[in-house]
Amino acid sequence: MALKIASRIINPHWQAYCAAAGLTVDHVPMTVNDEDANIEMLRGYDAVIAGMEPYSQRVLEALQGSLKIIARHGIGYDRVDVAYAEKLGICCCNTPGAMSAGVAETALIMMLELSRKLYVRNAALSQGRWDKGAATQQFEGTTVGLLGFGSIAQCLARYLSGFTGSRVLAYDIRYNEEALERYRVQKASVEEIAKVSDFVSVHVPLTPGTEKMVNGEFLSMMKPTAYLINTSRGGTVDEAALIKALKAGTIAGAAMDVFEREPADPDNELFKLDNVFKTPHVATFTDACAQAGFDGVIRSLKEFEAGQIPAFALNPGYIRNKNQREEDIHDEP
User: Fold this and answer.
1) Which of helix, strand or coil describes residue 186?
2) What is the dihedral of CA 140, 145, 149, 155, to 10 degrees?
3) Which end of the chain is more exposed for a tag (fewer CB within 10 A), N or C?
4) Concatenated DSSP letters for 193-236?
5) pLDDT, tens digit, for every residue of 53-67?
6) How far is CA 181 from CA 102, 154, 269, in A?
7) For residue range 21-46, what is the model confidence (pLDDT) as tens digits?
8) Domain ranges within the chain, ordered by starting residue
9) What CATH code is assigned to 100-278?
10) Which residues are known to be catalytic?
């Protein structure tokens, strides 16, 4: 079965990369918010290499019958209703671990920027001011708390293990015990991480259980000298509560690569605060991450074409519902 594949995130280089693997991918200019336009553009496609465009129940219902697989080029799948896709017999995949280094590097850079305030000094020089400002904090010897301990957080812990005297704590609903031992990471509760960390780095997927996990209560427990870093999903942090905490000095600062709404509103107050280092969701925006993502997507699509349940399938139960739907159609008079 040769799949008819669409994607909005592909350019000629990656089209050729997919073609070399035996897959033909059409560039379809979908948007991150317009469901109606996306539905019309995706009609007739068997597969989509998904970016950040939404695949809600409404979109999935409109495309059922033709759409067979959604292969997410990335890790997060909060824009895809995976459970509903399973009911419709649509396979959903992501690319776990493919982009861990890019995100972990970004989180570490953000910690160093907040610690040393280099972004502030750069801005001053760009404005013609030779201003060293106040002495800054040295990063070595600090305590870093990780909310989530999946592949990205484990990669970050590996980087942090090279800093002498630094302590790393992690909270998760389940742990990779081998990684904890290898990188000398200590298990901790959410409350403990809030209270003792100099840097809190968010690495959980956006789910109903993690939405606004970092809220006013969490921020109130943090040290006034501490910093928050979010490279996961904007919805894991209560932005209104964060803005309030930053203005009040409840915490020292924050670094954000993701926001509750993207593209973010230019009037977002986070953009106007000097104690916030911000980037436009670019943690995975590297050639290496792009290739790793396409390698994962290609694997899933080739496995699906071969009649297999892809190794990276998020909803393997789709096959049962797909077969049942096909039987129901076959049995119709």
Assistant:
1) strand
2) -20
3) C
4) HHHH-SEEEE-----TTTTT-B-HHHHHHS-TT-EEEE-S-GGG
5) 999 999 999 999 999
6) 23, 11, 40
7) 999 999 999 998 899 999 999 999 99
8) 5-98+286-331, 100-278
9) 3.40.50.720
10) 233, 262, 281
Q: Is the pLDDT of residue 87 over 80?
A: yes
- The pair phi, psi for residue 299, each rounded to 5°, is -60, -45
Residue 67 to residues 6, 54, 82, 91, 326: CA-CA distances in angstroms? 10, 14, 14, 9, 14
**Quick one: residue 281, left, alpha or beta (phi over 0 = left, psi -120 to 50 = alpha)?**
left
- Fold match between 5-98+286-331 and 100-278? yes
Nearest to 195 by CA among 220, 170, 218, 222: 222
Phi, psi of 58 (to 5 degrees): -60, -45
pLDDT tens-place string over residues 142-185 = 999 999 999 999 999 999 999 999 999 999 999 999 999 999 99
Q: Which residue has the tokens 């990188």?
A: 183
Q: Residue 132 is encoded by which pair of tokens?
A: 């060293």
Listing DSSP states for 249-308 in one string gives TSSSEEEES--SSSSPPTT-GGGG-TTEEE-SS-TT-SHHHHHHHHHHHHHHHHHHHTTP
At 31, list the tokens.
């948007």
- Dmax (CA) for the chain in angstroms is 82
- Whether residue 111 contacts residue 227, with contact meaning beta carbons closer than 8 Å, is answered with yes
User: Phi/psi at 277 (nearest 5 deg)?
Assistant: -100, 125
Collapsed DSSP state (helix, strand, coil) of residue 25: strand
For CA atoms 35, 37, 42, 43, give the dihedral sign. positive
Residue reference for tokens 């907040």: 114
Task: Take residue 139 and report the two structure tokens written for it.
Answer: 């990063």
One-letter amino acid at 235 equals G
Element holding 62 (H helix, E strand):
helix 57-63
